[in-house]
Structures are given as C-alpha cells and as structure tokens.
Amino acid sequence: MLFDRFFPTLFLRPYASFRMPSLDLYDYELPRELIAQEPLQNRVDARLMVIDRASGEIEHHHVRDLPQLLRAEDVMVKNNSRVVPARLFGRRTKTGGRWQGLFLRSDRATGVWELLTKTRGTLQTGETITLDDRDARAGGELMVIGRDDQGHLLVQPVPNEFFDGPPQAIEPGKWLDKYGRVPIPPYIRDGHMVDADVTNYQTVFASTNPEDAGSVAAPTAGLHFTKQLLDEIAKGQTASAEVTLHVGIGTFRPIEVDDIDQHQMHEEWGRIEENAVETINDRRSGGGRCVAVGTTSVRVLESCVAKRNETNGRGVAATWTGATDIFIKPPYRFGVVDALMTNFHLPKSSLLVLVSAFAGHDLIRRAYKEAIANEYRFFSYGDAMLIV
After folding, report:
1. Which CATH superfamily is domain 4-83+204-387 in?
2. Most-buried pick from 51, 147, 227, 374 (CB within 10 A)?
3. Where in the chain is the domain with CATH 3.40.1780.10?
4. Distance (Å, rounded) from C-alpha 201 to C-alpha 99?
C-alpha cells in the first residue's frame, strides 16, 4: 500500500523501562483484534475511559455520558476541518501504467496541487495522469509540473467538460468529490474505502465552508459526536467553540528517531478566530475548563497561547492563523488546555507522546494496559478517553 510507511507495525515490544527521552517509552503491544474496523452503529455508544490526573483514578463510562461529565462553566473546543476524499487512483495517460496518489494541499494562486504519489517509472514534466472516478471510469486529467524539495509531486488539473476555466479557478474540493476516495488508514480494511466511510469518517460538525475542507485524515475524537449529543451538552450550559486544523498525513507518521527530541514535526495549517478566543478566555476566567476534543484541537490551542506565566506556563488564547509545527512532548507546560478527549493512539506516534505530556507517562501507560485488558476498541473508529 502507498501509505503503509506512515504507520508502524502493530505488534510491538512491551513497554520499555523508563528512559527519557527514548522512543521505546511510547511502544506497546496491541492485539490486532482490538483495532476497530467499523464505527459503532450509534456513535455515542463508544466507551469513554475517564482519567483523573490529580488522583490517578480511572473510571469507565460511555461517550453518551459526556453531558454529566462536563461542567456548566466549561468550554468544549472542536476541530471543524472537513476531511476531503484525498486518495486518487488512475493511470499514466501515455503508458497506461497504474498510478495512485494522495492530495496534500493546493496553492490557490497558481492552481498547483501537491501530491504524495506511487507509480512505476519516473513521471516526466508535462505528461498527464488520467484519474478514475469511484466507479473506475476514466475522467479528469492532471498535468505534471515537477516535484518540490520534499519529493512530492506537483500537478495542475486540466480543464474538462465538468470543470472549465484556468487551473487557478478549479476548486480542488469539487474534483476530489468526483474522483477521490476517503483516505481510510491502512489499519482499517487495509485502507479500502466503503460507501459508509463517506459519512462515518466525517464529524457531524465539519464545516461546509470550502476553505475549511483540507484534512486528509479525520480528527477522530470528534467522530464520537452526534447532533443530539451536542444538543444535550449545550442544554447543560457547557459552551462550545470551534478551531480549524487541516490534519495532514504526517499526523500518523511514526517517530523514526530513538531520541524524540530529534524528531521534526510536520506542519499543519490552522486557525482560531475572535469568537472562539472570547468564549475560551471568558469561560476559563470564570473557573471553567477548556476541554479540547482531540489532539488536533490541542495543536491549535497551544499554538495560539499568549501572555504565558513564566512560573506555570499558563496563558490565554489569542487569535491566530498560520502553519504550526508544534511538537508537544514531556515536560511541556500547557498554556490553555485544561482537559482532553482523545482516542487511543498508535505506538511510537507523536499523538501518544502528546497525550503522555498532558497526563504523565506512567498514568497513560496504566490506562492503555487497562484499556487492553478491558478490550477497548483502538484507533480511528475505536473508543475514547477523557483526561481531566
């Protein structure tokens, strides 16, 4: 598979002895049958492990219990980025050789797309790729422009009967809706999309604004919510705020250096606007908690911190737009996030490092062991934890 190299083998060594900042510290053994292949029919029936950082206590609930677990003075922060059907299949127009790629991003000014690709032979500047739609029918074409300094393929869509005009005027989302497939991770059905993934691998609060469509992986903690659950949380007076972070393929890339201090974090584009900032700061100043839904929300919230206290690292949220390569690892001091809802993450991933920084390595190791013993469901379509 094209993207297998971004995901580690799931049968790994037991936890290593404590040795900071060794990557072995974030390794664990997971039975394959605990990797969720489908979401539950009712999203809120997913299990929710509640972890108290102060007491070290672990309780077992369900996502449907969130209205009782959140406080009236809290604010819950969600990532509203929309997953795009970024996986593309086709053939080299000239040779007929099979081709597959993953849409990463586009430059609106030039109409150039950046793709992660796999094909036999070397793609030449000026040649075209003919895309297949979801019914395997030949359709749109992409013209090769070159490669960037990371080796990613640069292309421009070729106008056709469905999408007319210069490349700069072609909206990537419309092309991807016609020719793309949902980028399901390879640990789910070996990466094969089924029709249900179109809705299952999308949060119910994903923005319909075209500018907010840019994730190539779902902010998976948000997959547990239904509109009914959000209404129940709102009835309890818990406030809600939204941020945007376009989740990139690098989110799931395993750390490949033994010393995690040497890991270079990928960049992702994000944004937090004034209305969200005001809600977060108002609730926190009144004694409420900023409850981040997912590690992607954490990355935005900790990228926008202003007025940090030099003693404890605490600060306030501020408006922010841009690219962030923040790598949150122990002993990071969190500036805005007070609680975190998140799924169970892959071994040796930056996401597991982030969660360990928030709750402490020993407590997270104990929580993961307990989750495995109680047969929790892991990864994107799996269960969740709430760390308070």
Report:
1. QueA-like (3.40.1780.10)
2. 51
3. 4-83+204-387
4. 24
